[in-house]
Structure formats: C-alpha cells, structure tokens
Design a protein that fits this description.
This protein has 2 domains: 2-198, NAD(P)-binding Rossmann-like Domain (Rossmann fold, 3-Layer(aba) Sandwich), CATH 3.40.50.720; 199-457, NAD(P)-binding Rossmann-like Domain (Rossmann fold). The longest helix has 32 residues, at 200-231. It is built from 18 helices and 14 strands. It is an alpha/beta fold. The chain is 42% helix and 13% strand. Helix 1 (10-21) packs across helix 3 (51-61), helix 5 packs parallel to helix 6 and helix 12 packs across helix 13. The two termini are 36 Å apart.
Length: 457
C-alpha cells in the first residue's frame, strides 16, 4: 500500500515513520523545502526519542520518502493523511482549520482513482464534513471517502504510543474506507490492539473528550495538592489512594505546575468554544482551562514565598523549561509563565534544559543559559525544578549545596522526598507535601517517607 502524509511536523513525521516501519510506502509532504531537505539529509527537526533511527531506517529502505511535490505523492496513494497544524485561532480560541482546508483543496486536485482522505490532525466535530465538501467542490468527479483517524501520541513516547496504542479510533461508515484502514493498521493485530470504528463525528469528539478528561485529572490533583498544603496531608499518598480505585486509575494524577504542550491547552479551549457554539457548554472543562491558567502564575508566587517573600536582586537557578521531559516542545510550557514573573519581581534567572534551550531562548528573553545542571546553581539563592528530566532526579545533593548560596530547593515536580532533603539539611518546598523549612531542616523530626514520584504530564 501507498500513503501520503501531508505535513511533516510532529504528528505527520512520527506517524509516517511508523507506517513505513510496517512496510507501507510512505511519502511525507511539506511546503517547507528547507525542512524536506534536512529530512532527506537525515536531520530531524524535532526531538523525539528514537525518531532519528526510525526515520533513517525508513529512508534507507526506501519505504519512507520526503518531498514538496504534493501532486505526485497523492496521485499514487491509497490513502492521504492530513496532518497539518490546527493551532488556537487568535481572538476566540477556536481551532484554526485554514491549513486543513487548504490541504484538502490541494489533495482534491491530485486524486487519482479511489482514495481515502484521512484527517489525522486534531479537528473539531464536523470538520470531516467540511473537508468532504471542499474536496467535492474542487473535484466533483473524484472517487473518495473522508475518514477521521485521531492521533493519541504523547510527546516523549510517541513511537511506543503508535506501535502499541491503547486503541485505534477510525471514524467512517464506508465499507471500502474501512477495508483500507484495516489494512493500514493490520500489523497492530499482533498486539491485539482494539480498533474502534465509529461514525465520523463521534471519532472527532473522542479526541477532544480524551484530552479534556486527562487535563481535568491533572487539574483535579493539582487542586487536591493545594488542599494538602493547607491541611498537612501528602498529595502523593492521596493520588495513590484514589488511583488504586479501578474506576479512577493512577495515570495523570501527578501534582505539578499545570499542564502545557501542543495538545491539552488548545484542545480544551477548542472544545469549550465548540460546546458554547452548539448550546451545550462544558462547565467542567471551562473551569479546568481557567484553573490551569491561574496555576502557572501561582507557582511563580510559590517560588517567591519560599524565598522569603522577595526575589529582588536574587539569582534563581531553574532546571527544565520544556513542558515535559523527552521533548524540546515549549508550547504552553509552565516556564513561559513562571520565569517572566520571577524576572519582573527582580530575580536573575539562570536555566538549563537538556533539549529545549534553543527553542526557549527567543521565548524567554533575559534568561542566562547554562551548559549543564550544576552550572545553573553556582552562586544561586534558590534552585527550582520545573521539568522532571531523568538527569535531574539523581542530583548530587552535596554538590548542589556547595554551589548554592543557600540550600533552598523548590521542587515543582515532587521528584525528591522531604525526608531525604531534611537529612541533607536543605530547605525544601514541593507540591502538596510537607515542607522542610530552615527550622525543621535541623530538627530530628522528619516527615513521613513517601516514594519518589515524578510527574508525567
């Protein structure tokens, strides 16, 4: 089989490379000639673990190709995937579908024989019908079906998510389209992956409903963490206690500075706007969007409070700026809200991230960028952990203390335990767990030991 992947961004590149590994002939198309040239030369424009090898192997075998020639790629394809961006539209929060519709019109002009046109991009309910109208208007004679096939790829583990998904959702009621999609995903039958066929609008809504629910779980446990801070409870134990309930589950119950990234912020907002438009407002999701927005600013104030109420004239070391580990994605990262507040309060910020610094530099002006984790700490008055990269989980605490002016850590990902920090005589502040102050750090009384658990948002 042959497929064309329109858009060589995160979703298109990962999906295309994974389909190529299945043995399908894949051509990734992008208007950015520079990006295509880099991909042909083996340069990967995004950071995703394992993607460089996957792309290299596919390209070397000939099963994965890159081009700017959409017409040629579409003419030979059994299925054409639309995997272009759908960012939030300025002013109203709706998904901007201009790239989707433009791709649909270009695809229509090159259709040759029966073809399945697949929306892989995250799109609001009803977009598939609009895509069908665009194609039909451009090519009334074309033989095609439009299918919804939403992606559920987590940045940092996208290849695993594609190869071993919880499920594959396919929205179509056309038998010929079902046969094409079954053939494309047949390799997953070895893993007994559930393939859910639904009506097209249902598949479109499943994607938004999934992300909204996960964002709600994150926001819920963050609010429980705030209660824990007030009453002296431990949010990690709370999360474990409720997560062991099979009706709830433990995933996404990790307190932190709020969700970010390319999906949750824009998808929750788009769902809110769609629901308002159809007269079925989603009060819960509206509250989630607002609570997450407020939380990021609140985390900056938490750092200031931990520093005694002021950071004016102080140097703050920050570890991690990407919205999550194993990615260089800075979209809606909490650091974009937290660091500027600290700077406005008079702090000098020195930061380090293993992958995201080049992406972050133009977004957070005034930050001093370090060459490594420990370099951020030299002469700093406090250390703040914003992203739970693995290399930050086992810091040499004696080395950390020797570099800091004051042994103060604000751990916004809860990757260290209060008891451990007390033993090392640190002042330690985390999310929804007992703090270790200057007074308690030197006392013999220690808070209850809790298993270290990093966030995975």
């Amino acid at each position: 089989m042959r497929i064309a992947m329109i858009g060589a961004g995160y979703v298109g590149l990962v999906s295309g490379a994974c389909f190529a590994k299945f043995g399908i002939d894949v051509t990734c198309v992008d208007k950015d000639a520079g990006k295509i040239k880099r991909l042909q030369n083996g340069e990967i424009p995004i950071y995703e673990p394992g993607l460089d090898d996957l792309v290299a192997n596919g390209f070397a075998s000939g099963s994965l190709q890159f081009t700017t020639d959409l017409s040629a790629a579409v003419a030979d394809a059994d299925a054409v995937f639309i995997a272009v961006g759908t960012p939030s539209r300025r002013g109203d929060g709706h998904a901007d579908l201009s790239y989707v519709y433009a791709a649909a019109a270009e695809i229509a002009e090159s259709l040759n024989g029966y073809t399945v046109v697949v929306t892989k991009s995250t799109v609001p309910v009803g977009t598939g019908s609009e895509v069908e109208q665009v194609v039909r208007k451009t090519r009334p004679d074309a033989d095609f079906d439009v299918v919804s096939n939403p992606e559920f790829l987590r940045e940092g583990s996208a290849i695993e998510d594609f190869m071993r998904p919880d499920r594959v959702v396919i929205g179509t009621e056309s038998e010929p389209a079902m046969e094409v999609m079954r053939a494309l995903y047949r390799p997953l039958s070895l893993n007994e992956t559930p393939i859910l066929f639904t009506e097209r609008r249902t598949a479109e809504l499943i994607k938004y409903a999934t992300n909204a629910f996960l964002a709600t779980k994150i926001t819920f446990i963050n609010e429980m963490a705030d209660i824990c801070d007030k009453v002296g409870a431990n949010v990690q134990d709370v999360a474990k206690g409720i997560g062991l309930d099979g009706r709830i589950g433990s995933k996404f119950l990790h307190a932190g500075p709020g969700y970010g990234g390319s999906c949750f912020p824009k998808d929750t907002l788009a769902l809110v706007r769609t629901a308002q438009d159809v007269g079925a407002p989603t009060r819960i999701v509206e509250s989630v969007v607002e609570a997450n927005k407020m939380r990021k600013t609140a985390m900056a104030q938490r750092v200031i409070d931990a520093c005694g109420g002021s950071v004016s004239g102080r140097k703050i070391a920050v570890l991690g700026v990407a919205f999550k580990p194993n990615t260089d994605d800075m979209r809606e990262a909490p650091s974009l809200d937290i660091i500027p507040v600290l700077q406005e309060a008079g702090a000098t910020v020195c930061a380090y991230d293993p992958e995201a610094m080049e992406e972050a530099k133009p977004l957070i002006p005034g930050v001093k960028w370090a060459s490594g984790a420990y370099d951020t700490m030299t002469g700093a008055d406090a250390l703040v952990i914003l992203t739970e990269w693995d290399e930050f989980r086992m810091l040499d605490l004696k080395e950390v203390k020797s570099r800091l002016e004051r042994p103060l850590m604000i751990d916004l990902r809860n990757i260290y335990s209060p008891q451990e920090m007390m033993r090392e005589n640190f002042e330690y502040f985390s999310i929804g767990r007992p703090s270790v102050t200057a007074e308690t750090a030197s006392s013999e009384a220690a808070p209850k030991e809790t298993a270290t658990s990093g966030a995975a948002q």
